[in-house]
Design a protein that fits this description.
The chain has 337 residues and is an alpha+beta fold. The protein folds into two domains: 30 residues; 305 residues, Glutamine Phosphoribosylpyrophosphate, subunit 1, domain 1, CATH 3.60.20. 34% of the residues lie in helices and 23% in strands. The chain has an eight-stranded mixed beta sheet with strand order 4-3-2-6-5-1-11-12. The chain has a five-stranded mixed beta sheet with strand order 7-8-9-10-13. It is globular, with a radius of gyration of 20 Å. Bound molecules: glycine. Glycine binds next to strand 8. The site of glycine has 13 residues, from strand 8.
Length: 337
């Protein structure tokens, strides 16, 4: 492939010096980690500790999102908002460079669903475990059973929700220009309201992996799953092409097999940003005028270390970390807003 590139560049009359600069440019974006929302800044730091010493992308994406899962100030992990019956139920999945993948869904009282998902991948012949079965497996693997209690911010927002108990579940969104949006823009503790952390990484050996973890929609129907534990919807990795991850309204990501669709657009030659945009455009086309009531954000890394993101609405941001660029929060482009 490099030879083909060389011949193409040669035919443009560029010098050997230009060619080596080209190779170096591509190399510079390795290792690289991207994650959704501003919580991604802290998560990327943990991932970077793995990547900077030549560690595996798979370890980086697990370690990274564990930081967010452990936080009591985010809509991910046991500190997050409960379902409408008052229980926190967690979904997560992970995928490596060899199409190995693992997932847990509707998991209760376990602090790190991403690590349980990895055990499903590594220690069972299955891809997905849900509910009591997932919890039983976690306990058998030595994960502690945490107390069944809500964090202080979650307790407050649940009590507020209970006053009306309207079943109008809306995915958490950072900032929306839509007047229809009813979810509070900030949590009671002042933090922004996010639904998911998705992380994708390219390691020094050129291998890709991804992870995705969430508590799902605030006050959702008991048993509801979104896109985040579903391989191909919330997350997909094809080590020959790239990695992609989604955040936002899970139902609408599932409808277009979001992360897998991004990968297929990249396989057809689109850049990561264009692949994300085309996928979001499909969602817009399906939703029509109702698109203003939801948010979806997608991130992607191509095998060559280029990366990008796109959102349906204004307000989606993501954290990017690689050696020269450190750890930056970028505002995504968007279709409406
Ligand atoms: N994207 C998270 C969810 O819909 O549950």
């Amino acid at each position: 492939m490099l030879r083909r590139k060389f011949l193409q560049i040669g035919s443009l009359g560029l010098s050997a010096f230009s060619f080596s600069s080209f190779v170096n440019l591509q190399e510079k974006r390795k290792p690289l980690v991207l994650s959704t929302w501003d919580a991604g800044i802290e998560a990327n730091k943990a991932a970077w500790e793995v990547l900077k010493t030549g560690g595996r992308a798979l370890d980086a994406v697990e370690k990274g999102v564990m930081v967010t899962e452990a936080s009591q100030n985010c809509c991910v992990g046991l500190g997050a908002n409960p379902d409408r019956d008052g229980f926190v139920t967690l979904d997560a999945c992970i995928m490596d460079e060899n199409f190995n993948c693992g997932s847990v869904a509707f998991l209760e009282r376990i602090k790190h669903p991403i690590s349980v998902a990895r055990r499903v991948m590594e220690k069972t012949p299955h891809v997905m475990l849900v509910g009591n079965g997932a919890q039983q497996f976690a306990l058998a693997e030595g994960f502690p059973l945490e107390k069944q209690e809500l964090s202080e911010p979650a307790k407050k927002s649940y009590e507020k929700w209970l006053k009306k108990s309207e079943y109008n579940p809306v995915i958490n969104i950072e900032r929306s220009s839509s007047s229809v949006y009813q979810i509070p823009q900030k949590l009671d503790n002042g933090d922004w309201n996010h639904d998911t952390i998705g992380m994708i990484a390219l390691d020094a050996n050129g291998n890709l992996s991804g992870s995705c973890t969430t508590s799902g929609m605030a006050f959702k129907m008991r048993g509801r799953l979104g896109d985040s534990p579903i391989i191909g919807a919330g997350l997909y990795v094809d080590n020959e092409v790239g990695a992609a991850v989604a955040t936002g309204q899970g139902e609408d990501v599932i409808r277009v097999a979001g992360a897998h669709t991004v990968i297929e657009f990249m396989r057809a030659g689109l850049t990561p940003e264009d692949a994300c945009r085309k996928t979001i455009e499909r969602i817009l086309k399906i939703k029509g005028a109702k698109a203003k009531d939801i948010q979806v954000g997608m991130l992607a890394i191509a095998k060559n270390g280029t990366y990008g993101g796109y959102a349906l609405q204004k307000g989606f941001n993501y954290a990017v970390c690689y050696a020269d660029n450190k750890n930056n929060l970028l505002d995504s482009k968007f279709l409406i807003g």
